[in-house]
Structures are given as structure tokens and as C-alpha cells.
Amino acid sequence: MAQYGPPPGPGSRNRKPLIIGLSVAAAVVVVVVVVAAIITFSDSGASGSAGDTVKGDLAALSRGDAAAALSYSTDQPESGQSATMSAISAALADCAKSNLLSPPNCPQRAYDPDLVDGTAAWSAPDVSGVKITMFEPYHLEVLFSGQTTFALVASKRSGGSKSGPVTAFISGKADVSQKPPAVSLRRRHQLAEQALG
Questions:
Q1: How many CB atoms lie within 10 A of CB 16?
Q2: Among residues 43, 44, 42, 64, which one has the least CA distance to residue 54?
Q3: Is the pTM of this model over 0.85?
Q4: Distances from the Cα of 67 to the Cαs of 19, 35, 57, 72, 123, in angstroms?
């Protein structure tokens, strides 16, 4: 007499098709994100390099080399970098329009008890010390950080005015899916509390 084991339980199905299906879906998502990022940042004159990137990405995916495929999307194209740096410069110029010694949502702060708040005249800083540190292709965001110096003139409580540089370390992110990129500055502490001259 032949003996048969118990019937398979509900959780013992073969999961191989599910794993294959999820892998294929993940690869499709990566390709779509990379193509969207390339289209977002491409100039009309830079279509050759964008095409090469897509071809390299698709070739890597067809070989099953996910690491190589992802490497094609870790750098922001040059045209996107230029637009991002312009947006960062514009955001800092907006911060310089404030007459406060510690403008909200801005990186600069003046720590001098002799200064009268509401009398600050900031000058927009140079952004040459700010660098793009990472491009996140899945979120279409760029992370940036660096040091910059604002010039400040403000009235003193004792009369007259003070002026001098205020150095700030800035960081933030830019949503490059928008034109121009939308910049969000993170509030940072000053590198040092500086006495104005």
C-alpha cells in the first residue's frame, strides 16, 4: 500500500515566479527613472551624451549588471548642474533681501548684541564654495553643501553702523524635476561667531 504525505499547505507555493516578476518590475522602474532624469536635464545640443547614457544603462540591465546600470545615473548632467547652481544663487539672493539679523529659512545669522534687528543690509554671497555633492535619480533631487560669505551692514544700538563679512556653511537640496529647480536650504550654524568691524 502506497503512503502519501499530507497535502501542501497554503504557504508552500513556489515563489520563484514572484521573485522574477518583482526583479523585472524593479528593472523597469530603474530604466524609467533614468530616462526621466536624462530627459529632464538634457539640452537640445546634448542629446548624444544622453543617448549614450540610456544605451549604456540598457546594455547593463540586459547583462543583469544592476550596479553598472545604476552607475549611469549617479551624476547630474552638466546642464542640470548649471541650472541648479543658478537656483541656489537665486535662493541665497532672496535671503540677502531680508533686513533681519537671522532671516528665517536662510543660512546667515549675525550674533552681535550691539546690532539692531530689522536694520540689516545683506549682500548676496558668491556660490563658488558651494558644491553639488550628490544627484538622487530616484527622487530627482540634488544635494549640495559648502561655505559662503555674506556681507552685512547694520545699525548699532549705540549709534552709527557696523559692517563686515558673515561666513555660513550651507547645505540643502534642489528638486530638479521643476524648472527652475526648487531649492530648500537647511539652516546651519555659523562657522564662527564673527564680530563685525
A1: 8
A2: 42
A3: no
A4: 19, 17, 10, 9, 45
Q: ∠ CA(117), CA(174), CA(185), 5° rounding?
A: 20
Q: Residues 110, 98: contact at Cβ < 8 Å?
A: no
Strand partners, 132: 144
Question: Pairing relation of β-strands 141-155 and 130-136?
Answer: antiparallel
Tens of pLDDT, residues 131-182? 999 988 888 899 999 999 999 999 999 999 999 999 999 999 999 888 899 9
User: Of how many residues is the chain composed?
Assistant: 197
Structural domain spans, the chain: 16-71, 78-186
Strands 141-155 and 121-123 turn out to be: antiparallel
- Residue range 2-57, pLDDT digits in tens: 666 666 666 566 778 878 888 888 877 777 776 666 665 554 444 445 455 556 65
| Bond from prior residue into 180 cis (ω within 30 degrees of 0) | yes
